[in-house]
Amino acid sequence: MLKILGKATSINVRKVLWTCAELDIAFDREDWGAGFQSTSQASFLALNPNAQVPVIVDGDFVLWESNSICRYLCNKAGDGRLLPAEPQAQARVEQWMDWQATDLNNAWRYAFMGLVRASPAYRDPDQIQASVANWNLHIGLLDQQLATSRYVAGDRFSLADVVLGLSVNRWMLTPMERPVYPAVADYYERLSVRPGFLAFGRNGEP
After folding, report:
1. Which of 6, 22, 131, 140 is most buried, most CB within 10 Å of its CB?
2. Which GO molecular-function terms appear in the entry (predicted)?
């Protein structure tokens, strides 16, 4: 059975859990990360030298990086439910996944660490304000995309919606000023009919 290493409150672990829910993949999960088993242990570093969750162990195969794990699970399932086989459709899904992992994540990091995690290293009010503004700008770009399609990569739910649905949830739950983005709000409610999102996304964790 697939083993997932990582605490259930981690947004990146939740990507993998939601993907498993959508694909009906059974798994065992072990708590690793802050507050649980330390990822600096030699046994964990042997699996992921970056000391970060999630990590999966699938038989004798080990993989880290959440988006790569989600792609792997989709490709292993082989039915195209979340990641289309057709090259252009697949590229569109992966484009938005990569945007989430780079542009969007970099936009919210300072604000989230300061406002939610209360990290001593992220307390500069000017930098928090700048990060909030940049975060809202990027969610505005997502709103423009969702104004033209039901889901992020088109009219069909895909893996892009797993990673970006969790990002929208984080944006919604962070205590800060947010513009009204109607398409994003509708999208958030549309995702909320999915059991996997309610279990691992809209579950009270930012």
Report:
1. 6
2. transferase activity
